[in-house]
Amino acid sequence: MRRPLRVEVIAYAPTAFYHCLHCELVWQQAGVGPALHAEQLASGLPEDLQQAYRDLAAWIARLMATYCDRIAVKVIDAVSLEGWWKSLRYGARRYPAVIVEGQVFAGGDLAGAEAAIARHLSAPQATA
């Protein structure tokens, strides 16, 4: 069985902060939690970055529908410690940056990334 192709996406992502499980339960029962988190997600990024994230999410959903369990997509927030590290490691300076088997497609080159994904998944797997 072939392991899924790992695709990492570094992007500015909306963030919602949560409390401990006990507090979240109280906030949820009071009816405040969902509205609070929705407001955080809605105001977490400027409108242009929110639209870029929606477009990216639609692209990822299309990839998942096309390739199912043949790929594993991991979205990394560009302003997180992991996002900083991955950006440094791969030399990504523009976002979204898609990393496919060490190859970086930055600045929204989703067509190039998708072509690389298709190439990697169509290549015959070497046997040991």
Folded structure, characterized:
The protein has 128 residues and is an alpha+beta fold. The protein is 50% helix and 16% strand. It has helices at residues 21-29, 33-43, 47-67, 81-90, 110-122, and strands at 5-11, 71-77, 97-100, 103-105. The radius of gyration is 17 Å and the shape is globular. The chain starts with a strand and ends in a 6-residue tail after the last helix.
Describe the global form.
globular
Instruction: Compute the separation of the termini in Å.
Output: 13 Å
Please compute the radius of gyration using only Cα atoms: 17 Å
Round the mean pLDDT to the nearest integer and report it. Answer: 84
Percentage of helical residues?
A: 40-55%
Helix count equals: 5
Order of helices and strands: EHHHEHEEH
For the sheet with most strands, the description reads:
4 strands, mixed
Strand content: 15-25%
List the uncertain runs: none
Main-sheet strand order equals 2-1-3-4
- Count all strands and give the number: 4
> Which structural category do the helix and sheet elements fall into?
alpha+beta
Describe the structure concisely.
With 128 residues, the chain is an alpha+beta fold.
Q: How would the blueprint of this fold be written?
A:
Elements: E1 5-11, H1 21-29, H2 33-43, H3 47-67, E2 71-77, H4 81-90, E3 97-100, E4 103-105, H5 110-122
Parallel strand pairs: 1-2
Antiparallel strand pairs: 1-3, 3-4
Which descriptors would you attach to this protein?
single chain; 128 residues; alpha+beta; 4-stranded mixed beta sheet; 16% strand; globular
